Amino acid sequence: MTLKILILSLLTSSSIGWAVKERTLHFDPALVELVGTVETQTFPGPPGYESIKQGDEIERGWYLRLKEPVTVEANKPTTDLGWQSEKHVQVLHMAIDWVQIPESKLAAGKTIKVKGKLFNRQNGHHHSRILIDVSELSEVQE
Which residues, 6+ apart, have CB-to-CB distance to 32 below 8 Å? Predict the structure, then answer.
């Protein structure tokens, strides 16, 4: 009888699906470590941030696509800066100091591990809800 209950329980839970709890991260000053795939994305820049075809400059950026989305929670010090919590974050714009980290370390499609501090977008040059100020970057061998 117990085996029937176990099988029924497994069948029921697999048909409903498992609720996956997103990993929760925090804004600067917390240092986070993330693994994902490098992407480049192109957006219209100044002056209008609306259309490259209509004369806006091209803005290309480096992005980290996570396998699983995360939640980024604001805490008291960051809420004073106006930062807001975000759920289901899967793509982060990478803010990189090219003097500290050479652009040659990046290639679209490469899996990397980055360490850095998270922040909300602050201006028209930021094209994702959450950005990471990258302090370290390394390739991950798959």
Answer: 25, 26, 115, 116, 117, 118, 132
